[in-house]
């Protein structure tokens, strides 16, 4: 392998494979990851239950579009749960099919997008968020830290998952639909300020960027002897 190829491989897979194998192939650590995802999901749902607008103001069919971070966590938990039947085996040899490609791709792009979006949204108005009062220790620093873990979990997914062109296009369409819901109808995640065109434009840009990133970082699924490009 050339030096350039090795550098590209390290960028796409920054965590040593043996660490990924230990944490995702070990029953105890994988179980704890699912527990943490579940607990964080419930915390996120609680936030949207008590926000204004809240889940009570919407049809249950719209919950996944409104609760962006809980949706990311639910997808992440489902993604890693697909490894449960293969505990003790190499996670990099996990099987792939069209449904799994969709699930893993959606989990990855939602985690990356809303891990980044949260940090950007809070820091667009640092005067409202940055501080060290008891409330801001959670509402700024705590939220930033928890969403950093979105990015860390997302990095693990391409080790055991593959994507396809159709999965990437579906993910982009779903993210853009979510953006229309958030900013076309004013149902973006509750903030201490009104989201204007700058945040809306950043959000749409993130949708394209994270799908492009997924296209680069994931291996493509194979169909027969050929790599799927459909």
TrEMBL record:
Keywords on record: Membrane, Transmembrane, Transmembrane helix
Entry annotated with the keyword Kinase: no
Pfam families with a match to the protein in the record: DUF1405
InterPro entries: DUF1405
Transmembrane segments: 21-49, 69-87, 99-120, 140-160, 167-186, 198-218
The name this protein goes by in its record: Uncharacterized membrane protein YpjA
Organism: Halobellus clavatus
